[in-house]
C-alpha cells in the first residue's frame, strides 16, 4: 500500500490543474496540528491550494475527488524548526555546501541566504518524503557572531522554494559566539551590543529616556524607540562616526532587528547566557527574540515565560556534551511548557541538514518521557504542534502554514499510522495543494540495485 496513494494523487494532478481540484480526504484519524488531540474518522477538504475545512462531521462538497484514508492518519506537513536544508549536500566534500560558515566575505548580518537555496538539493527530497513540507533555514556563522538572514522555504518539487526571504537574523552567542568574538562570552555580548548601537546610530534613533531601568518588556510592546527630536524618521542617517566595526551594509541590515521588524534567532545553551540575552532587551527593548538550542532553559523557565520569548529547543539533549550543557535533561521541554514557555522543536547541531526525519522522533519521545515517573514530557497534541504550528508561530506565519485550519495553505500528509511513531511513513504529500513525488536519490538507488541482473551491471562486470 505504501506509495500507492502518492501515485494516485500525482496521476490525478496530471489530469486536473491543482488550482482547480477539490479533494476530500475522509475516514482517517485527523491531527489538526494546533495542539489538540487527534480526531478519529475526520475529514479534510482541500481546494485551490488551501484548506477548506478539517475535523469531524465536515461536509464533502459535491463533485470533490474523494480519497479514503480509513486506517491512516491525515495531518499538516511538518516544519523543520531549524535547518540548513537547501544549503548543503552530502558530506563527501565541501564543494556541495553553499553556506556562510567558512566564507571570506566582508559581510555578515547583511548576508541573505535566499539566493543560495537549492530547491533540487537531495536533502530536500529526503525531507519531503518523510512529511516535511516547510523549513526554517538558517546560515551558519562564519567569522562573526552574525550569521546573516535566514528564510522560510517550502519543500515542493519545483524551483520556487523561498516562501519568505529575510525572515530573521541569526546570531551565535554562548560558546560558539565566544570563539568568534575573541574567545570570551563577554566579548561576544559586547560585540552584539556595539553592533546594535551602530545600527541605532545609522538609523538616527535614540533610546527612550530611562529605558535602561525599565522592567523587561514582553514581545510586541509598542514604540520602544523614538526618532530624533521632532524629526520623523524617513531613512538612514548619512552621517556616521569613524569609530565603527560594521560595514554600512551590515549595520543597515540590523536596523529592522533593532526596530523589532525582523525576528532575531539567538543560539544559546547555558542558563546564565539565556538570562544575559533576555537582559539585552532592557537596552534594546524592541528586540523580537527566539532562543535556539536552549539546553539549560528549564533552569530559567519563569524568566523566559515572563518575557514572552519563543524557544526553538533541541528536544532531547540529555547528556553534558559540553560545559554549557551540564544541566541537560530530557525534561527540559516538559518543564518549559509547564512554566508557560512557548516552545517549538528544532535540530541545531543534530545534523540539521540531512536528518530532519529525526524531528518527529524527538517529538514522539517527548510524549514517551511524560510516562516516566519523575520526568516531564508533553501531550501528543502539544508535541505534534511543536513540529507543525509552533515553528510557524515563531515566524509569524501560523495563519498560512503548520495546521489544517480553514484558509491555510494545503500542506497535507497522509500517513500510514501515527506520524510520531518511527514505523509510520507518508503515503501522500501535498504542498500548496499540489501532489508531490515521494522518491529521492536514495530510493532511486535502492530500486536500481535491489535486484541486479547482468544487464544492470557496468560493462566491466559483464565479461
Automatic annotation (TrEMBL):
<keyword id="KW-0378">Hydrolase</keyword>
<dbReference type="Pfam" id="PF07969">
    <property type="entry name" value="Amidohydro_3"/>
</dbReference>
<dbReference type="InterPro" id="IPR051781">
    <property type="entry name" value="Metallo-dep_Hydrolase"/>
</dbReference>
<feature type="signal peptide">
    <location>
        <begin position="1"/>
        <end position="20"/>
    </location>
</feature>
<dbReference type="InterPro" id="IPR032466">
    <property type="entry name" value="Metal_Hydrolase"/>
</dbReference>
<dbReference type="InterPro" id="IPR013108">
    <property type="entry name" value="Amidohydro_3"/>
</dbReference>
<feature type="domain" description="Amidohydrolase 3">
    <location>
        <begin position="370"/>
        <end position="433"/>
    </location>
</feature>
<keyword id="KW-0732">Signal</keyword>
<dbReference type="GO" id="GO:0016810">
    <property type="term" value="F:hydrolase activity, acting on carbon-nitrogen (but not peptide) bonds"/>
</dbReference>
<protein>
    <submittedName>
        <fullName>Amidohydrolase family protein</fullName>
    </submittedName>
</protein>
<dbReference type="InterPro" id="IPR011059">
    <property type="entry name" value="Metal-dep_hydrolase_composite"/>
</dbReference>
Amino acid at each position: 500500500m505504501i506509495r500507492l496513494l502518492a501515485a494516485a494523487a500525482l496521476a490525478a494532478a496530471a489530469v486536473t490543474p491543482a488550482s482547480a481540484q477539490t479533494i476530500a480526504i475522509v475516514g482517517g484519524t485527523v491531527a489538526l496540528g494546533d495542539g489538540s488531540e487527534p480526531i478519529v474518522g475526520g475529514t479534510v477538504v482541500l481546494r485551490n491550494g488551501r484548506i477548506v475545512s478539517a475535523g469531524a462531521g465536515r461536509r464533502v462538497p459535491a463533485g470533490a475527488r474523494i480519497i479514503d484514508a480509513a486506517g491512516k492518519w491525515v495531518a499538516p506537513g511538518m516544519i523543520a524548526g531549524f535547518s540548513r536544508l537547501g544549503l548543503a549536500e552530502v558530506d563527501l566534500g565541501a564543494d556541495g555546501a553553499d553556506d556562510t560558515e567558512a566564507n571570506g566575505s566582508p559581510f555578515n548580518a547583511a548576508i541573505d541566504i535566499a539566493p543560495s537555496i537549492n530547491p533540487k538539493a537531495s536533502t530536500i527530497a529526503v525531507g519531503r518524503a518523510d512529511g516535511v513540507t516547510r523549513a526554517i533555514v538558517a546560515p551558519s556563522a562564519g567569522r562573526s557572531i552574525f550569521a546573516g538572514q535566514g528564510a522560510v522555504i517550502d519543500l515542493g518539487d519545483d524551483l520556487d522554494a523561498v516562501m519568505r526571504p529575510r525572515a530573521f537574523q541569526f546570531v551565535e552567542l554562548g560558546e560558539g559566539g565566544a570563539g568568534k568574538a575573541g574567545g570570551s562570552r563577554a566579548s561576544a555580548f559586547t560585540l552584539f551590543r556595539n553592533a546594535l548601537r551602530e545600527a541605532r546610530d545609522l538609523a538616527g534613533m535614540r533610546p527612550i529616556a530611562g529605558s535602561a531601568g525599565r522592567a523587561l518588556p514582553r514581545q510586541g510592546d509598542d514604540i520602544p524607540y523614538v526618532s530624533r527630536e521632532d524629526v520623523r524618521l524617513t531613512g538612514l542617517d548619512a552621517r556616521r562616526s569613524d569609530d565603527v566595526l560594521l560595514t554600512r551594509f551590515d549595520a543597515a541590515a540590523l536596523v529592522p532587528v533593532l526596530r523589532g521588524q525582523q525576528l532575531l534567532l539567538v543560539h544559546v545553551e547555558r542558563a546564565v547566557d539565556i538570562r544575559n540575552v533576555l537582559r539585552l532587551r532592557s537596552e534594546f527593548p524592541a528586540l523580537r527574540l527566539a532562543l535556539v538550542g536552549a539546553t539549560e532553559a528549564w533552569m530559567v523557565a519563569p524568566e523566559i515565560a515572563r518575557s514572552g520569548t519563543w524557544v526553538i529547543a533541541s528536544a532531547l539533549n540529555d547528556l553534558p556534551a559540553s560545559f554549557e550543557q551540564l544541566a541537560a535533561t530530557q525534561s527540559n521541554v516538559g518543564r518549559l511548557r509547564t512554566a508557560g514557555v512557548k516552545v517549538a522543536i528544532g535540530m541545531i547541531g543534530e545534523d540539521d541538514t540531512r536528518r530532519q526525519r529525526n524531528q518527529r522522533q524527538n517529538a514522539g519521545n517527548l510524549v514517551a518521557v511524560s510516562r516516566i515517573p519523575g520526568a516531564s514530557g508533553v501531550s501528543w497534541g502539544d508535541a505534534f504542534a511543536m513540529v507543525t504550528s509552533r515553528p510557524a508561530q515563531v515566524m509569524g506565519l501560523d495563519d498560512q502554514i503548520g495546521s489544517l485550519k480553514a484558509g491555510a495553505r494545503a500542506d497535507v500528509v497522509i500517513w500510514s499510522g501515527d506520524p510520531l511513531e518511527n514505523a509510520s511513513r507518508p503515503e501522500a504529500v501535498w504542498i500548496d495543494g499540489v501532489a508531490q513525488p515521494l522518491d529521492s536519490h536514495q530510493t532511486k538507488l535502492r530500486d536500481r540495485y535491489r535486484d541486479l541482473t547482468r544487464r544492470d551491471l557496468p560493462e566491466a562486470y559483464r565479461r
